[in-house]
Amino acid sequence: GAGVSQSPSNKVTEKGKDVELRCDPISGHTALYWYRQSLGQGLEFLIYFQGNSAPDKSGLPSDRFSAERTGGSVSTLTIQRTQQEDSAVYLCASSLSLAHEQYFGPGTRLTVT
Amino acid sequence: QKEVEQNSGPLSVPEGAIASLNCTYSDRGSQSFFWYRQYSGKSPELIMSIYSNGDKEDGRFTAQLNKASQYVSLLIRDSQPSDSATYLCAVTRSSNTGKLIFGQGTTLQVKP
Fold it and tell me: A104 to chain B: which residues are within 8 Å by CB?
């Protein structure tokens, strides 16, 4: 079946602009996660959604970052007033439910100039 | 001390040999353990999950978990050049969270 999809695959933006990254999870998966991977920082958790529960936002690095999940499916990660340190690969993953195996999408490479 | 630690490598093994990748974690209450493979420029791909002490085998891969010693390992038998990648160890603290905590990864090189 179809895996996790993300768009765009690449995004170049100017410092100070807002960006939106989209994730479409595997059908039937109730949990959706956002991570980012940058050189020197490894893979770090940002936020996850599980069903109708309040999201765990504990990994968001600043209030410039926000995410929503509409209808229990597609999710959008928004970064406002982008900074150069936001440059990274943003990865989305989904799982059947919490603590189950997570499957990653191809990622969005964000470059802030 | 990092919560999940891996030797960054590179670990170099000849084709056909057994590659042994190790990971230690600091939170004794950690519940679930995963190994991901990541090729350069690609996203992580799940290889194995393990939840209880002992060994779990899947094809050429064996995951080993020892909660008392707080380590988890991945053995790759009959290593192939196509196994050359970075291997990421990931842990969840409890069954009530999906937050994966990743190690920095071990780079494996399998030489023909």
Answer: 36, 43-46
Q: Which residue has the tokens 């995410």?
A: A67
The chain A residue lying nearest B91, using CA atoms, is A99
Place of tokens 């600043």: A62
Supply the pLDDT for residue B13. Answer: 97
Rounded to whole angstroms, how far apart are CA atoms A12 and A111?
A: 5
How many CB pairs below 8 Å do chains A and B form together? 59
Chain A residues inside the 8 Å CB shell of B103: 42
Average pLDDT over residues B19-28: 95
Cα separations in angstroms, B45 against A57, A62, A98, B3, B34: 24, 28, 18, 21, 10
pLDDT, mean over chain A = 94
pLDDT in tens, B94-105: 777 889 999 999
